[in-house]
Amino acid sequence: MAVICGLGMYLPERSMSAEEIAEASGLPVWVVRDKMGLERKTLPGPDDHTNAMAIWAAQKALADAGLSGADVDVVISINEEWKEYPVWTTGSALAAGVQADRAWAFDINQKCCTFILALELARGIFMTRPEVDVILVAGGYRNGDLIDFTDPNVRFMYDLAAGGGAAVIRRQGEGLKVLSTKMITDSQLAEAVVVPVGGTKTFLTDANRSDFFLRVPNEEEMKGRLSKVSAPNFVRAIQEAMSLAAKTSEEIDYVALLHMKLSAHEAVMEGIGVDTSKSIYLKEYGHIGQLDQILSLKLAREQGMYQKGQTAILAAAGLGYTWGAAVVSWE
Prior knowledge:
31% of the residues lie in helices and 21% in strands.
């Protein structure tokens, strides 16, 4: 068993409005608002570094769970790769930041599906390590730094934002019981989106610094492939997670989806047979990567849209390309 008993989010004070996104990209404001589904997105301040934001969110999640760092047995870092240092294990730094001095820690990365993956790993750890009772999952995200608003091929990522998110997971107790998870990978899209410089294939230099942004090497090929598989894989991941949890669409009370364009959000909700009123569209925040599900759950809890006795779906898609879903029941 694995039960989410604490949630925490850190959101930077700065934001970028729909008007500012339109000005930077040359798009009409109505396209940013109505098609991209953005009123604004969060932007990092000068001290809002990736792991720092993870620590601040983790502190809030621990407080929400009524625990301290001393109670944590395992720390799973879901920090994004774009972080304080290019070659760095953040799990230990995250553990130090919350004073989880006796915990062992490690990093994972599945892009925007990383939180779903962390839930699956937490379930496995509880099954094989009987001494583990408390797992802290936390990460920061600011991939919006890597967006070139003059590049129309990355328009679908203009919503990338910034923030930190965390969840405390216990072996048992009150909270959101993780009933199932499901992940699907399409390896043909492995290099659909990359930062082309700064790795071992092409070292970062003064001459190529202008290419240190997320790029789509073959935009036509990627769009053609995604148009065929994206929505079906979203729906399939969710439906298979529901089947594993022995749940039907009629039993789903809330859906925590990542931020994506409005038409895609509506298509996924229709595909799984759940009304859009049972989900919060994150138009005021943008896409904070693998932390969207944490933010969505926290907002739903605060707004009374997700309550004790109800069942929720968490769903995401990450570059690479992977689709993931989890079913949780508030018990």
